[in-house]
Amino acid sequence: MIDVNVSLSRWPFRRLPLDETPRLVERLQEKGVTQAWAGSFDALLHEDMAGANARLAEECATAGEGILLPFGSVNPNLPDWEEDLRRCAEEHGMRGIRLHPDWHQYRLDDPAVPRLLDLAGEQGLIVQITLLMEDERTRHPLVSLEKVDAAPLVTLAKERPELSLILLNSQRVLRGALQGELAAAGVCFDIAMQEGVGGIRKLMDQVPFEQILFGSHAPFFYFESAELKLRESELGETIRSAIERGNAEKVSGGRS
Amino acid sequence: MIWDLHCHLSGVEGRTPHERMARLIDYADRMNVDRLVVFMGMRWSTDPGPDDLRRQNDDVLEAISHWADRAFGFAYVSPKHIDASLEEIDRCIRNGPMLGIKLWVAQKCSDESIDALIKEVAGLKGAIYQHTWLKVTGNQPGESTPLDLARLAQRHPDVPLICGHSGGDWERGIRAIRPYSNVSIGTGGFDPTAGMMEMAVRELGPDRIIYGSDMGGRSLASQLAKVQGADIPAAARRQILGGNLRRMLLPILREKGIST
C-alpha cells in the first residue's frame, strides 16, 4: 500500500497520538504501508522553509525505516522560493513537493503559481496541493484562512499534461462540476477527506479510478479512516489494488 | 457488537424510505454494524412545523418497519412546537416502536421551553439526542453548543442526555459537558481527528461515549475509525461501539418487549 498523504513533526495546536515518527512508521508498517509520501506540519507556519525541508529529509532518512519519502514544501510568497524548490530536487532528491496555498496565503491564479509548476515539472517533481488541513469550523480561533479556489488549476493542469498534480484533502473544498473538470485535466485526488457512505464509489462518479490515490492524512486523521473506506465501497480487486498502490506507482513513474 | 447511534435516510439512492433503508443496511453489513438508530433524512428541515415533523417521523416508521431486528428509530421533535412534539412522542414512542427523540437546530436546548419534552421522554425511559456544534465560523441562530446542553443537563441531572457530534470542536465540547455525569457524547458527524477518542476516554471515562456515524452524509469508515484507530483499551472500545448505547436503550427496549 502507498499512502500519499502523511505529515511529520508537530501539528501546531495539539499533540497527536502518532506524531513521533517511529510510532507513525510502526503503525503504517502494521497496516501494510510500504511507502508513504511525507510532508511536514512545520511547513504550515515556519518561514525558514529550507530548514523545515532539510529536517524532513533527515527525519525520513533516519527514522523512516525505508518507507517515508519526503515531500518538501515551497511557499511562493517567500523571497527566493525557487532555491527551496531547487534544494528539494537536487540536494534532497525528493520525488515531489507539497503546497499549502491557504496557510501560505496565495491564490492559485497568482502569477507565481504557473512558474512554480513549470520549475517543478522541469525537475521532474510531483506537485501535491493540500486544499485543507482541517474542517474550517474547528480551527483554532486565531487562525483565519481563505478557502482555496481550485478553479485556476483546470487551465494550469491542461497546459502541463506532463506534470503530476495531486490534490490532497480536497473534497470539503471542491463542489459541483469543478472536481470533474479537474479530473478531466488529469489531476489526481486522494481519499482522506472523501466523506459520505460509500464515498470512494461516489468519488468515482466524478473521477476515474485511475486518478484516485490512497491518502490517509495521518497522523492528523486516524489512519483507519482511509483504510476502512476501501472496505466500505464495493470496489473489486482491480480498482482496489489501483487505489491502494498502482495509481501512486504510475504517478511516481515507478521510482521510489 | 456495533450499534450506530446516528443514521439518516440520506446519502444513499432510493425513492422511498424502505429503499434507502435497504441500502443503509447493505453498508452496515459491509462494515459489521449490527444495529442502526435512524432519524430524519428523506429531506432536511431545520425548523420544521407540526406537519413536517409528522412526515419526517412517518418516513422513519416506514424505514424501520421491515428491519425490526436491525434498526431503531428516534422521533424528530422541536421545542418550537411543544404540543405537536408531545403528540409525536405519544404516537411514535409511547404507542409506537421508536426509542427516543432527536433534537436539532430549531431552538437552543438551553431554552427552558424544551423541558416539557425532556420530562415526557424521560418518563418513557427514552433516549434524548441533542445536536450540538461549536463552530468557529458561527452557529446557526437556534443551534445548540455543548454549553447549552450543559445548562439543560443542570436542570435535569437525573436524565441521560446525548451531546451530538461531541460538539464538533471536541476539545471544547468534552470539557463543556465533563462535569455533568448524565451527559454522554455521540461521536458521529465530524472529521476523524486523531486524539479525540483518547481525550474522551481520559476525561469522561469509556462509559460516557457512544459511537455514531451520521451516515449517509458521513462515511461509516471515517466514523468507525475514531474508535477502531484509537489507542484505548479493548474493553473501552467494546463499550463505545455498542455496549453503552445498548445499556442506555435497554430499559425502553424491555418495556416494549424488544429482544436484543
- How many angstroms does the end-to-end distance of chain A come to? 13 Å
* CATH superfamily placement of chain A: Metal-dependent hydrolases
Tell me the CATH topology of chain A.
Answer: TIM Barrel
What pattern of helices and strands is seen along the backbone of chain A?
EHEHHEHEHEHEHEHEHH
Note poorly predicted spans of chain A: none
Oligomerization: heterodimer
Helix content of chain A: 25-40%
Please give the radius of gyration of chain A in angstroms.
Answer: 17 Å
Question: Could you please describe the fold and organization of this structure?
Answer:
The complex is a heterodimer of chains A (256) and B (260). Chain A is an alpha/beta fold. Chain A has one domain (2-251): TIM Barrel, CATH 3.20.20.140. Chain A is built from 10 helices and 8 strands. Chain A has an 8-stranded parallel sheet. In chain A, helix 3 packs parallel to helix 4 (81-91). The longest helix of chain A has 16 residues, at 236-251. Chain A is globular, with a radius of gyration of 17 Å. The model of chain A has no long low-confidence stretch (mean pLDDT 97). With 260 residues, chain B is an alpha/beta fold. Chain B has a single domain, classed as TIM Barrel (Alpha-Beta Barrel). Helices cover 43% and strands 13% of the residues of chain B. Chain B is built from 9 helices and 8 strands. Chain B has helices at residues 17-30, 50-65, 82-94, 115-123, 146-155, 170-177, 196-204, 220-228, 234-256, and strands at 3-7, 35-38, 71-77, 100-103, 127-130, 161-163, 183-186, 209-210. An 8-stranded parallel sheet of chain B has the order 1-2-3-4-5-6-7-8, sandwiched between helices. In chain B, strand 4, helix 4 and strand 5 form a beta-alpha-beta unit. The longest helix of chain B is centred in the C-terminal third of the chain and has 23 residues, at 234-256. Chain B starts with a strand and ends with a helix. The chains are: A alpha/beta (256), B alpha/beta (260).
